[in-house]
Amino acid sequence: MLKNSKIIWNKARKIIPGGNGLLSKRPERFLPNGWPIYFSKSKGVFIWDLNNKKYTDMSIMGIGTSVLGYNNSYINNYVKKNIDLGINTTLNCIEEFKLAKELLRIDKFADQVKFARGGGEAMSLAVRIARSKTKKSKVLFCGYHGWHDWYLAANLKNINHLNNHLLKKLKPLGVPKELKNSAIPFNPNDINKLIKLTRKNDVAAIVVEPSRFSYLDEKFVKKLNQLCINKKIILIIDEITSGWRECLGGVYKKIGLKPSIVVYGKALGNGYAISALIGKKKIMDIAQDTFISSTAWTERVGFSAALAVIKYHKKHKVFDHNIKMGKIIRNGIIKIAKKNNIKISVNEIDTIVSFNFLYDKKNEYLNTLFTELMLKKNFLASNLIYVSYFHTESVIKKYLINVDKVFFEISESLKNDKKILRSKIRSYNYKRN
After folding, report:
1. Strand 261-264 relative to strand 344-346: parallel, antiparallel, unpaired?
2. What are phi and psi of 376, to 5 degrees?
3. Does the pLDDT value for residue 432 go beyond 50?
4. Is 159 exposed, middle or buried (0-12, 13-18, 19+ CB in 10 A)?
5. DSSP state letters, 305-317
6. Strand ranges in 358-406 using DSSP code E only, listed in sequence order
7. Cα 6 to chain centroid, rounded
8. pLDDT tens-place string over residues 31-65
9. Domains (ranges, CATH) in the chain?
10. Confidence of residue 165 (pLDDT cuts 50, 70, 90)
11. How many CB atoms are closer than 10 A to CB 24?
């Protein structure tokens, strides 16, 4: 079936630029010559390919969307029930109001909510609102925040500006040159650089991710909060990746950030398209003065999914489970690597577990080899795992047994300086010919 999948993929690339709509799902980012590419069905943490071959997903779980597992029956049934009542009409659906009220109960600092469907567009809304409110243009950021012009403008001044945040040497093709110097990056926890960048009173917003592979430093958080208060800068917290994994809502609450706006996406809908901006009324209300509107933002499905997701979280101890399972995965990988004399580093986030080989120029080769060898054992695996509620102890036990076997093979190949990878090495380039 892999051969057939590759044939379909090659045909798809001729009629869809890049083959699909999401860079992170392209096979060259995992295993260029062996990744299954297409799925026929899914359930929990299991995915079946077009040939009905079953895999266990110990990787990115729908690019981090499926905290509650694939094809969750509770979410689906709630959504289907509302679909049968109609999706989009001349009148508004009540679920938009219900979801707004629910989110404001969770994010008590906020007064108003705006909805979108994708994370990137929600971030663009947040930046537009910040610029509208402050009547300033400059945005300072650290982390990955989407594909829109405001963000890619960082590379207009320096082609390397996004190297540590997105992709290396990403060309800002199509981004108006007039946006040069409007978006400026800084490294996480670098408060001195941030203070220097804010010395001129022309900053509309500072945008941060509270965590991805590590948390923002406590001292940095305190100084960032105070800096935004003193300079009257709008603080936008991007919780698209981190939100709804460790607690109801965002990680910002756990590390002490004091936001003006919080942005959610991904796990808020558990695979259904929904994103949200939650903020203070004195800032959010400016959305009525700048034109922000879209037909798709008022359809019923996304709101229904998010309401069901929140109910599911409240009914089940999802966060406790996912943190516990993440710790088992992290500790297991560390123990197995030590047993097999493999040098790795492991991140500190329990709900998004990642590890990196420490062999300099061999790292990407080893990452690809790990994926290839695990795939032979019917695991979709990489060095990044988004933990879900259906990653049970039995699933993880089986995974770690196979990681041990694969690490042994990798250790032997390193010891004998023997290359055993059959695929091409994975690539994180934006475009491949």
Report:
1. unpaired
2. -60, -25
3. no
4. middle
5. HHHHHHHHHHHTT
6. 379-381, 384-386
7. 26
8. 999 999 999 999 999 999 999 999 999 999 999 99
9. 2-71+317-415 (3.90.1150.10), 94-298 (3.40.640.10)
10. confident
11. 11
Token pair belonging to 262? 């919080």
What is the distance between the alpha carbons of residues 171 and 343, in angstroms, rounded to a whole number? 34
What end-to-end distance do the CA atoms of the chain give, in Å?
23
Rounded average pLDDT over 366-387: 98
| Rounded distance between C-alpha atoms, residue 330 and residue 58, angstroms | 12
> Both tokens of residue 41?
């069905």
Q: Supply 299's token pair.
A: 């359809």
CB–CB of 235/258 below 8 Å?
A: yes
* Residue 104: its H or E element: helix 94-106
In this structure, the number of other CB atoms found within 10 A of the CB of residue 49 comes to 20
Residue-level length of the chain:
433
Burial class (CB in 10 A: 0-12, 13-18, 19+), 61: buried
- Report the DSSP beta bridge partners of residue 277: 114, 263
pLDDT level of residue 428 (50, 70, 90 thresholds): confident
Residues linked to residue 238 through DSSP beta bridges, in sequence order: 263
Backbone angles phi, psi at 44, to 5 degrees: 65, -110
Do the Cβ atoms of 426 and 23 come closer than 8 Å?
A: no
Model confidence at 430: pLDDT above 80:
no
- Is residue 299 within 8 Å of 88, Cβ to Cβ? yes
- Which structure tokens are listed for 352? 């998004």
Which two three-digit tokens encode residue 377? 């054992």
State CA 265 to chain mean position distance: 8
**Mean pLDDT on 149-174:** 92
* Both structure tokens of 407: 């690490």
Nearest in space to 269 (alpha carbons), one of 296, 302, 230: 302
Query: What would the mean pLDDT of 128-152 be, rounded to a whole number?
Result: 96
Q: What is the pTM of this model?
A: 0.95
